[in-house]
Amino acid sequence: MSLRRKLVRLRPLIATAIMLALLPAAPAFADDPTPTPSPSATSAEEKIEEGLAVDGGTVRAIVELTDPGQHAPVAGKAAADSVEVLLQPQSQPFMVVEGTAEELAALAEDPRVTSIHRDRAYPPALASSIKQIGADQAHAAGHIGAGQNIAILDTGVDLDHPFLGGRVVAEACFSAVDANTESLCPNGQPSQTGPGAADATTAKCLLDGVNLCDHGTHVAGVAAGTGGVAPGAGIIAVQVFSRVNDEDLCGAAACVLAYESSLRLALDHVASLAEPIAAVNLSLGGMPNQTTCDDSEEGRIFKPKIDALLAKNIATVVAAGNEYFEGASFPACISSAVSVGANDDGDAIADFSNRGPLLDLFAPGVDIESSVPDNQMTVYSGTSMATPHVAGALALLKAQSPQTPMPELIAKLVATGRPYVYQAGGAEVRTPRLDVAAAVTGSAPQPDVSQSPPAAPNPGPTDPDPDDPGPTDPDPADPGPTDPDPADPDPDDPQPSGPTPQPDPSQDPTPVPLPTVTVTVTITVTPTPPAKAAPVCTRGTAGKRLTAKQWAKEIHRGSGTMSDETLGCYLKLVGKASKVFPEVTKASSLGRAYRVLKSTKTAKGKLDSALLAGWLNWAHGSNGTKTLGSAEKVRLSKKSKGPALRKAAAKVIKSR
């Protein structure tokens, strides 16, 4: 089959992909608690998500089956039609394949296939915190979470880190593989269980001496490290990320992403474990949502899994996201998840944190010191850091009252939190800040904290005047005064605006974290003093809309006023919010984004340019995405022709 695919696709296949097509890809897991989708689609076309391989090429997709027993016949049909089978979890009613639009359409004709959709990938969601939430008082009273465990679904952990104190009690790994994606399981396969399976110090985690997998160790330390919220609880480490070697997708030589298929297998694996588990921690996220996402395509898959865990008295605690948005990112937007935003040391909502009625709790998330690989300590900020505070708190409560149903423990944590009162969506919102001491003792909440209207994380750069044409429109073939980047695949591709400047609070709309406050913790080594946390990648607040031409000038070397860091951050946020970028149209790197903004000769190119400018405006601080969402539906439809594409582009441009 592989030779035939080489001839058909004219692209090489890595050896692991060949092996995956021939061998069962994963051991048997617990039965999937997700109800099998009923075959309601009346045609093969209706079974396929809009936009799959709409621009040609192949796409990684999840094929939902009527039941797990259909793996062999459907995989056989896929192989016969040159569709590459990447993953076949034998007890699960789905499989993962890679194919062209035509090949997937042929596969959808099979009555045993109920739907086909993209296997989406999610990035990690990137003190005085213990004292602020009263965890020190709970510890002094003997509440440390003993007898409970916290499942950290993340980038694995440094198993020997002294801050974790040997509390890793179980490990697993579910890590997607394809031509540009490598497994982070130590065995190199898509799955692994047992000791060492979630090791975050393997060679695949390293890129030019930097550990790409440090996030999970930091999160685990906050939840259950020696100086964490539940220092007596065990850690169940589950690696759910893969190493993606695709500069167009990552905006860098490589990055780590968690695919939906890996997350589904990991959640079911946790549900099958016999150990007492208080919470699953998900410090990751995708598209921001203003309302609950239970009925979205992804929500219909994940909510039953979260509900199944809750029925086993296991909470799913999820980072709300760092987009400075009145809503929550997926999957924090699922109603039965515990959605967590971040606050700072001054009992104020962190300037990068999402907020609003979708959130259940705030917890400390600014300048949080915790463990990272190689026995180091460092300071990070983000809702990723806030989430394990809540997961640890639930471990304390469940250890205190193991027979109490988890929904009651969550309600208790919410009821005893210190209320933050603020405006969101034109209405008053009350969201409690975590108070572990009050939850453990059952005392009354502390007084309300009125939050000032959200202020700009930083004023941001001076925006170009829409009525000012600015400098002469740059020539795409002119690389500017700086030599071309040798790492860039296209020597004529314009580069970012000059040498990377040092962060300047008056020029960069990303927030500047509050001064570090060190928590004194006694451990067996003396770590290097942690560095100050890097600014969190979040939306700007300028709110001033730029045209596609102006955004192109910002991105082109030597022409703009925004820093490379700001523009790179904006592209990352666009990648989370949009279904077109970069999944359909590559626009993760500044050079790629420039080409999209300037390529307006065709109807499709004009719409892509308008959409990217619109999403960049959203990342820059303007509100409203309804027109962008409608235009993306037009862009992703195979039925859309020139007139429809041009009309959608005109609406996006007019919406400015």
TrEMBL record:
Query: Any idea which residues are catalytic in this one?
Result: D154, H215, S384
Instruction: Name the chain's protein.
Output: S8 family serine peptidase
Question: Do you know which InterPro entries this protein is assigned to?
Answer: Peptidase_S8/S53_dom, Peptidase_S8/S53_dom_sf, Peptidase_S8_Asp-AS, Peptidase_S8_His-AS, Peptidase_S8_Ser-AS, Peptidase_S8_subtilisin-like, Peptidase_S8_subtilisin-rel
The UniProt record lists the Peptidase S8/S53 domain at 145-411
Record's keyword terms, sorted: Hydrolase, Protease, Serine protease, Signal
Q: Which organism is it from?
A: Nonomuraea corallina
Signal peptide coordinates? 1-30
Key word Signal present in the record? yes
Its organism's taxonomic lineage begins at: Bacteria, Bacillati, Actinomycetota, Actinomycetes, Streptosporangiales
Q: Which domain of life is it from?
A: Bacteria
Question: Which stretches does the entry tag as region Disordered?
Answer: 441-515, 634-656
Per its UniProt record, what Pfam families does this chain match? Peptidase_S8
Which residue ranges traverse the bilayer? none
- What protein family does this chain belong to? Belongs to the peptidase S8 family.
Instruction: Name the residue ranges with Pro residues bias.
Output: 454-463, 471-484, 494-514
